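=== RUN LOG ===
request id: a7f3
mode: sequence -> structure
chains: 1
length: 263
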Amino acid sequence: MRNTRLDEMEKYILQNESVSMEQLCQQFKVSMITVRRDIAQLQRKGTIEKIYGGVTARKGEQLTPFDVRRIKGREAKAAIAARAAQFVHDNDTVFLDSGTTTLHVLDNLSALHNVTIVTHSLQAMMAALPYQNLNIISLPGQLYRKTSSFTGLDVIRFLKTYNISVAFMGASAFSIEHGVSNSSPLEYEIKMTAMQRAEKSVLLLDSEKFGRTALLTYAQIADFDAIVTERMPAPEYERACRDAGTELIIAELPTHAPDGGEG
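=== RESULT ===
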C-alpha cells in the first residue's frame, strides 16, 4: 500500500513541479507525519527536493517531448539502431526502451522469425504492428505523455516475470563521472529492471549525449555488453569502455552523393 502511495506521490509532484505539504496531505488523505516520512524516502531516491512549506521536482537535464526528440538526428538514430539490431536472432525476446533511437530497431527485424518484443513504449507497440514476424507484449501502466510510454509499479511487476534475450536501452546523457543517466524519474526503475532481466544489454546513444549528465544515473559502463553510437567519442570514453569490457561500436552513417544541381 505504501509503495503504491509513494509511486503516486512521486508522479503527482513531478507532474505539478511544486506542491505544498498540505496539498499532499489532502491529495493522498494521510497525516502530515506520514507525508514527511514519504517525502524523506523520495528525497533519498533523488527525484525531489524539499523547499520551504513544500517540495519540488529536481531539475536536471530537461526531458524534451517525444515527437521533438524523434525528429532530431533521425539519420544518426536510424544508423545506430540498424547496427544494434544485429544483436537480435530468431526466437529472441527483446526489450525495447522508450527512447526514440531504440524505436528504429524495429525497422531492421523483418527478416527474422518469431521475435517477441516486450515494451512499455506506446510508439514501439504501434510501430511493431505491421510486422507479422513480431510478437508484441505490452507492459501495463499509466501513460506518461512526455515519453509516450507506460509507467508505474505494474510495468515493473510484469517486467520482472519475463526472461529477456537482449535489452535495447536509451539514455538522456552519458559521462565518465556519472555513468548513463536519464531525465525521467518515472522510468528510472523500469530501465534498471529491464537490464536485470536481460542476458545482454545494449545502449543506443547518439554522440551528442556524451559528456553530459541527466537527473538520475541508472547504469554504469560495465553494465552494458555494448554501446552503439554514430561517431567515435573522446579517447577517455574509448578507454573507459575497454577497461569495463564493454564493446564500443561505431555505426556507419549513409554517404550522400554530392548535389549536382545549381544553387
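=== NOTES ===
The longest helix spans residues 2-16.
The longest strand covers residues 198-204.
=== END ===
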